[in-house]
Amino acid sequence: MNEEILNSLIYIPLFDKLDTDELKFIASYMQLINLKEGEIAFKEGDVGDFVCFVVDGKLEVTKRSNQGGNVVLAKLSKGRSIGEMSIIDSYRRSATVKAISETKLVTLSQYGFETIINKFPKTGIKILKELARLLSLNLRSTSSRFVDSALPPREVARATAVNHR
Asked: Virtual CA dihedral for 69, 92, 56, 108, nearest 10 degrees?
């Protein structure tokens, strides 16, 4: 199983900066999970203590709206990750993640990540820097979507025109 996890890590951008020995080491702290179509990886409000990396298949990320419905935030496929914040903080899950096809995930627990940091700090720092970069990109994207949805349509057109000059 460890060999399958190791081979999967090659396709996950978060681990691009790690060498083969580092990948072998972290693979020993990861688990492989298979989800059937429609199966829930985790629900909004669950305790979050692991991050998921999509090896194969597709996930749908949804969040409850204030009106009580569910809003699709994203669809994730091979190479993408979800739940990155959960290995840094101890907050509850902010969204529900469901497989929309048969999906294979590799997971890294908060405990596993802390062990990596303690045993091999340089490797842990590389992973942490990539996590921070990924979270920063996600925050920038979310901020842009928020601004676009908060502005009246006329203001969005004007802001877009100004940015493309």
From this structure: 180
What is the Cα–Cα distance from 53 to 38, expressed in whole angstroms?
A: 18
Q: What is the pLDDT of residues 131-152, one digit of tens each?
A: 888 888 877 766 666 666 666 6
- Joined together, the tokens standing for residue 67 give 């009106």
- CATH number of the structural domain spanning residue 8: 2.60.120.10
Do residues 107 and 51 touch, judged by C-beta distance below 8 A?
yes
Handedness of CA 105, 111, 117, 118 (dihedral sign): negative
92/119 Cα distance (integer angstroms): 27
Q: Write out the residue range of the structural domain in which residue 123 sits.
A: 2-163
Give me the residues paired with residue 105 across strands: 33, 54
Counted domains in the chain = 1
| Whether the model pTM is above 0.85 | no
Sign of CA dihedral 127, 130, 134, 135: positive
Which of 13, 15, 6, 26 shows the shortest CA–CA distance to 78? 13
Phi, psi values for residue 6, rounded to 5°? -55, -45
